[in-house]
Amino acid sequence: MLFPARFLSSLLLLAPLLCQAQQPALPSRPPATEPQSKPQTAKPETVPAAPPLTLAEAIRLGLENNYDIRVSRQDERLAENNVSRGNAGQLPVANGNFVQTYNRNNVRQEFSQGDPRINNNVPTRQFNANVAATWTIFDGLGMFIAYDRLKAIEQGQRQVTRAVMEENVANITDAYFVVVRESGKIKSIEEALKIGQARVDLTKARVDVGVSAKVEVLTARVDYNADRSILIQQQEALKRAKINLNNLLGRNPNLDFQPRDSIVVAQNLTREAVLQAVSQNNPRLQQARTATDVATLDRRLRRAERFPQLGLTAGYGRTSNFNGAAFLPGTRDLGTTTTLSNGFNYGVVAAIPLFDGFNRNRLEQNARITEEQTRLQLAQTQLSLEAEAEQAFAQYQNRLQLLELEEANILLARENVAITLERYRLGLLTPLALREAQRTQLEAEVRLLDIRYQAKQAEIVLRRLSSGLVQENGQ
C-alpha cells in the first residue's frame, strides 16, 4: 500500500506545477495544447514590488530633467531675444551725455607794461549736456538682410532643440523597452525554473517508488541550479537597464520601478512615407538647410558693405562755462564771467567706401566659400539620413517577418513542453528529452523578446528620423 500512496501524493504535488509551467494563472485557462502569450511586463517574483512607470511618464521626466534639452532651450531663448529690428540696425540710436567739471587753478598773467598779476585758487566750472540721435536710412539693404539672418538663426536653433528632444526621446524609449525586454526574460527564466522544479519533484517521486535512479535526481538538480544561475545573471542585466534609464531621466540611478507598457510594434510603416517624412521633417536636415540660408545671407551682407551709407543726425546741446578770473570789458580788472549756450543741430551723414586694401573682396570671397561648404554639408547630411533610414527600414521589415515566425513558434514550443512533461510523468520519455524541450522553449522565449525589441528599436529609429516622436509643441 506504500507504493500507491506515494505515487498519489506525488501526482497531487505536481498538479499545480504542471499548470504553472504551461500558462500563467488566469480565471479561465485554455487547454495546455493551446497556450497563450504571457504578459512580458509582469513583475518578476524575485524582485520586490516597485512603483509603476509608464513610457509616457518616463518621456515626461526625461524632457523636464535632461540637461542637454535644458541647455538647448536656453540657447533658443537667446536666439529669440536677438531677433529685433534694433539689433539689425533698423532703428535710430539716441544717446544723452552729461559732463560737469570743477577746476581750481593758479593764474599768473604778464603784460607788456606793468607788473604781472597773480591769482591763486581761481575757481572755474564747465557744464555740458547734449542729446544726439543718428538713424541709418540706407546701407545697401544690409539692415534688412541682417534682420532676416537673425530670424534664420532663431529658426535653426529651434531645429537644434527639436533634434535634441527627438534624440533624447528615442534614447529614453529605447532604454525603457530594454527594461521591458529584460523583465520579460526574467519571467521566461522563472517559468523555466518552474518546469525544472517540477522535473526535480517528479524525479524524486519516481526514485522514492524505485522506478528511477538517484543520479536522475542529481542531474535534475544540476540543471535547475544552472537555470538559477542564468536567472541571477539576468537580474543583473535588468538592474543595469534600470540604472541606464534612470540616468536618462535625470533621477537617482538606484530608484526602482515597474514598467507598465509592453512592446507593441507598429506594422504600418512604409518606405516611401518614411523617406518623404525624413526629407520634409527631419530637424537635423532642416538645421542644415537653415545653415545654408544663413551663409547666403552672410554673403549678401558682405555685398551690401560695398554700397554707400546714408543717415540722419540730430541733437540738442546746452553748455555753461564759469570763469573766476576773467578780464572785465575795457579794463585790466579781473572779475567772474558765465557763458551759456544751447540749441539744436541736425544734418545728413554719408559714408562712401572707396578703398580698404581689397579686404571687402576677400571677405566676400570667404562668404561664398562658406556658402558652398554649407551646401556640401547639407548634401552629406541628407545622404547620411537616407542611408540610416534605409538600414533601419530593412531591419524593421526583417524583424517583422521574424516576429511573425517566432510568435507562431513559441506556441509550438510551449505545447511541446506541456506534452513532454506529461509523457515524462508517465515514464515515456527520458530526462534528457524533457531538458531539451525546456531549453528549446526558453530559447524561443528569449528569441521572441529580442526580435520584438529589435523590431521596436528599428521603428523608433524610423520615427526619430522622420521627426515623429515629438509634436510641434514639444510634447
TrEMBL record:
Domain of life from the UniProt record: Bacteria
Keywords: Cell outer membrane, Membrane, Signal, Transmembrane, Transmembrane beta strand, Transport
Gene Ontology molecular-function annotations: efflux transmembrane transporter activity; porin activity
Matches recorded under Pfam families: OEP
Region of interest (Disordered), ranges: 24-50
Location of this chain's protein in the cell: Cell outer membrane
KW Coiled coil (keyword) present: no
InterPro entries attached to this UniProt entry: OMP_efflux (IPR003423), TolC-like (IPR051906)
Keyword Ion transport part of the UniProt annotation: no
Signal peptide as annotated in the record: 1-21
GO CC terms: cell outer membrane; efflux pump complex
Family of this protein: Belongs to the outer membrane factor (OMF) (TC 1.B.17) family.
Name of this chain's protein: Outer membrane protein TolC
Organism for this UniProt entry: Hymenobacter psychrotolerans DSM 18569
Source taxonomy: Bacteria, Pseudomonadati, Bacteroidota, Cytophagia, Cytophagales
